[in-house]
Amino acid sequence: MMSVHPTQSGKVFLGLSGLLYLAALTSQSSILLFMVGIVLGCFIVNALAAWSSLKHLELRPPKSVLLSEGQKWMSPWTISNRGRKMAAFLVAESPQAEIFRLPKLDAAQEIQVVPELCFTQRGVYHYAQVKLSSFYPFGLIRANRSLDLPGEVVVAPAIYEVEAPLAAGFDVMVGGKHKGKHGSTSGADFSGVRPLQPGDPWKQIHWRSSAKGQGLMVKTFDEELSGRVSFILDCGHTGKIKTLDACLRATGSLMLAALAVGHHVEWIDLIHLEIHLMPPLSDGEGLLDALARIEMAPGCLTKTHLDQALAGVSHKSAIHLMLTGYDPSVQLALENPHLQRRLIRVYLPEGCAAPPLESGSLAHYSEMDLLV
Amino acid sequence: MKSARHQLVLLGLICQGLSWDDYWLPLLNILLWIFCLRRPGLNLRLGPLAESGLLIGGSFASFGLGKLFQHNIHFFIGHGLALLQLARLMRPLARSEKFFSVLIAFFHIGVACTFVFDLRFMLILAAAIVLIPKAFCELAAERFGEDHLHSPWRSPTHWAAYGVIILTTIVIFLVFPRVFLGAQFAPRRSSASDFESMLDSVMDSTRGALGQSSKVLMQIEGDNLGYLRCLSLINFDGIQWSAPKRIPKKTLLFVSSLQPKQHLVRRVRVKNAALLGQILPIDGQVVNLSGNFFWRPYQNIHGGIICESMWNTANNTYEYWINRRPMPEPFRGQLLLYTNHPPASARLRAWLDQALAGENEPLKQARKLEAYFRTNFVYELGAPKLDRLNPTEDFLFNQKKGHCERFASTMTLLLRLLGIPSRVVIGYVPTSRNFFTGGYNIRFKDAHAWTEAYFPQIGWIQLDATPRATTGAERWNIVDFVENLDSAWSSFVVNFDAPMQNQLFTGAIQTSVNIARYVRQHLYLVLSVLILSGVVWIWRCRRKGEIPADESDAAREKIRVLAGHYYGQMLQALEHRGLRRQLPQTPLEFLQANKVRVPWIAAEIEMITRWFCATRYGLRSLSKTQQTEIEQALERIKRQEPSGG
């Protein structure tokens, strides 16, 4: 879909044309209208040429990409002119920022342009919102063409280094990063030998020790455990986008830290109330993608939602409440007797005051840091 | 100086200078413009405060100087802006400042539109049509980091765009509604001495330069244009004719409803009202009169129109209507004044009797005398002077040749001898038509004298005893062409007002109706032509539209091969100079290695290498300009002497 409208310069010259016309009415001769005609003629030529510039242009964006906040986008865009005339003064832009600008594209020419774009805010930027504009040749009229391109740029919250969050409900898991008290016949860390017992695998017999004459000995390893961590996410109860973004950065950082140490991670947000399970040691791309897509939902922090979310998470896991602001419903929800012996931590924005929680500890987060 | 914006600024400065005078200030502005752009060694950067001071100070200075030297002070702010423009030429400008500079240039050109009404405006308009789009393009190109030398508008082939601009300009001029709401500029009064200069040009063609001047005095449009009367000379002292000091006035009666069948209209444009001497030339019995450069016109008993005051405007025009068939007017004034004559000799009386032998009716006698002079005498400018004591008999019996004044004088005298009231009238005779407008150009050399005689029941009639001049056909010259063009410009453009616009619209509507009628009558033929044209046009549009994908791929491949060919030629040329590219070396590595070894052609090698990589790996295309640049770079590489080592 194409549209044309005057630029700022164009509006000034349109106003000037009006003034010239009024001056022509007070002049002895109306030859001032020639000046009006020249300006309006330039407008017409601009409109036609700009429209014609855009007509045969083809823009091919890169495939959908996942970026982080503050990360430069270096994927090239391909623009080709399928027409027989030169296209010039081209600008590709989205509602958020300008993607690239091109002074000239000859007929039958195709070039690749790398935009110098840096997304500073989390979100999903659809290519369908990208439009191509041309001011050719006079900069008085701007022709726009909506391209409706497939694909998107997903900008996930920036991740920073944090310690792994507290976990609970440890279970044996191959590859788990936590040491258990008991030994195991398999694992990564060798912890000694013991006499063979019924049920032990033959492969684990330590022949060298067994040869010493004390009977068959099997290798024992440190028990590998992994815990469970649950995150309950407030989707912007306070209505402040900056706070929500900071909250999501903290959430993402904690979740990835938990995944890195091999915990089971699950998370639920207070709007959709759907559990998302992340297997341990996964790369977290899906998680970041999901965090990027979270939309502001003021007023989502209610006792009902909290109760539902708390009921939905695993009953063994440590609970991390990621909040954008304090609400008395948090206290009420945490007073649930079932939660009395659970490991619960509440995260609030820096500077947000809250009464001490009876069951649970408090932590704060800032723009790019976690203050435990 | 090649920048269209600078050139537009220059045009604006010239236009602003024209508001002061015709030569000196425009010339000064041009010189200052050149100086400010060149500024040998001088780099002046005025701050915003200083520039504002320059603007305000310049405005007030021009106001004061204008009052002192009696120049136009209407546009004093424009002079301050002109100084600001000149100051800003001396430093690089930000984009917003360049934009403002273009706006100021617009203002200056607009100023010229309010007072430059002659052919000079055509030059200004032509320059504006060329420069304004280019200046816009430069401003827009800078947003994309392109300077004026590489602006996409530099190509001279944008004729279609210029055509659209010119067409739009014409349509806007023709269509926009017109209402004059303003006031006249301050007038310049005509001087008394100018009254004599017009007389001089008639009474003795050897006196005064105006007599034979081809310079146009005024331009008249109208049908059946007659002799334009200015003055009536009644008193004759035997040697010279003169007008009475006081001529009684007559009430100028205007007719309220003008009928084209009954009345004729004349539209007159006067170049310099000072030369009219407060008299409006007319060619009949005026029934309506209007104009923009005189005040309180009145008519005297001789039928002449005289104004109480007259001034000069940039566009002096008047319009008057006359009766096609005027009613005979009763005789007014003292009869003796119109029949008075010095005593005539017997020889003169005898000649008169002989010339009019057999004719008793006064009107026929007058016509006979008129015919006699026309047939038997010769028109000659610069004829020998007549006898001081008896000029009439010397002319009549001896010389028999002379200019119009002699014939009019003699004719009038002879009629008075017959007792017929008569007078000498001086004015102008329209001779040459304007090639463009069809109207008449009245030049100084068209000044003429003739006789008017009064006959009861008929009134005053015109008698011209001057024979036709035998000067041969007029040769065309450039001055005439320019004058005709100026007249056309004034008629069709400068004075294009609401009535003319209505006339145009009416004509256009009538033409549309006629076309519609024609189409209805020949419907099938017209439809066939339209369908055929539409098919051809659609086929051409589709052909001009997108390039098919395979054609586009073929073009790309061709460019790739071409760039490879250029790169190969460069490598060959460098190999002759001992610079050989090793197999494992990439093109950019080879470039880096040789930048140091042959710095004098490093730029050329870099350009060719980068284009090679861009087309081969970046799928870029090569335009004709870029191909030319690469070929020139190759030439320079080949021309370099082989290296010594």
**Percent range of helical residues of chain A:** 25-40%
Give the ordered list of helices and strands of chain A: EHHEEEEEEEEEEEEEEEHEHEEHHEHEEE
Rg calculated over all Cα atoms of chain B: 37 Å
| Helix count from the secondary structure assignment of chain A | 7
Largest sheet of chain B: 6 strands, antiparallel
**C-alpha end-to-end distance of chain A:** 52 Å
Backbone structural class of chain B: alpha+beta
Strand order of the largest sheet of chain B: 9-12-7-2-17-16
Care to count the β-strands of chain B?
19
Q: Which overall shape of chain A is indicated by the principal axes computed on the Cα atoms?
A: elongated
What is the alpha-carbon Rg of chain A in Å? Answer: 32 Å
Outline the biggest β-sheet of chain A. 10 strands, mixed
How would you concisely characterize the structure shown here?
The complex is a heterodimer of chains A (372) and B (645). By secondary structure, chain A is α+β, with helices and mostly antiparallel strands. Chain A is built from seven helices and 23 strands.
Q: In terms of topology, how is this protein built?
A:
The complex is a heterodimer of chains A (372) and B (645).
Chain A: E1 2-6, H1 8-25, H2 32-55, E2 57-60, E3 65-68, E4 72-73, E5 77-81, E6 87-93, E7 98-105, E8 110-113, E9 117-118, E10 123-126, E11 131-134, E12 141-146, E13 152-156, E14 168-172, E15 178-184, E16 190-195, H3 207-214, E17 217-233, H4 241-260, E18 264-269, E19 276-278, H5 285-292, H6 303-312, E20 318-322, H7 328-334, E21 344-349, E22 361-365, E23 370-371
Parallel strand pairs in A: 3-13, 17-18, 17-20, 20-21, 21-22
Antiparallel strand pairs in A: 1-12, 2-5, 4-9, 5-8, 6-7, 6-11, 10-13, 11-12, 14-17, 15-17, 16-17, 18-19, 22-23
Helix pairs in contact in A: 1-2, 6-7
Chain B: H1 4-18, H2 24-38, H3 48-68, H4 76-88, H5 95-113, H6 120-142, H7 159-175, E1 188-189, H8 193-203, E2 216-221, E3 228-233, E4 235-236, E5 241-242, E6 249-250, E7 263-270, E8 279-280, E9 286-291, E10 294-300, E11 305-312, E12 316-323, H9 335-339, H10 346-355, H11 362-376, E13 378-379, H12 391-399, E14 401-402, H13 404-417, E15 422-428, E16 432-433, E17 440-443, E18 447-455, E19 459-463, H14 478-494, H15 498-521, H16 523-544, H17 549-575, H18 587-597, H19 602-616, H20 624-639
Helix pairs in contact in B: 1-2, 1-4, 1-5, 1-6, 3-4, 4-5, 5-6, 17-19, 17-20, 18-19, 19-20
